[in-house]
Fold:
Amino acid sequence: MHVKINPIVNIIGREELIVIPIVRNGDFLLALNFYEDVQGGRLARLVLIQDKYGEIREGEESAIRGDKAIVFAEGVEDDYKKLQQLIKIDRYLRSNRIPLFINIEVLKDVDISEKGVRGYINYISKYGRIDAKKLANVLSLEIEIK
Structure:
């Protein structure tokens, strides 16, 4: 995946979510999240996280809270197809825009009413936990700051 980030991004909100790290490039981490788009939903979405201090451990899921912006990415569809070969994904976000989370904090407790948490709960309720180590480095990540 090739991601283009403007030097100044527009923050559109703050969100809590559970992420499964996939690949790191410097301060940026590409991760998988399941989002409750409809009641009981588990829409897969790739998210980009600016993790300046390496707080998110690779190979295990993490709960985070951060400011959300939107960035443009190329190769998103191909990346979902690669992930579908490794884990069960019913539906995924079909867009060349992905969420970027900045100013993150890793959480010990999560608000289960948040859509980025509920979607993950819905996923594991149906398919069980994902072995995060199985997803490590299966995708590539290139960052371009314009």
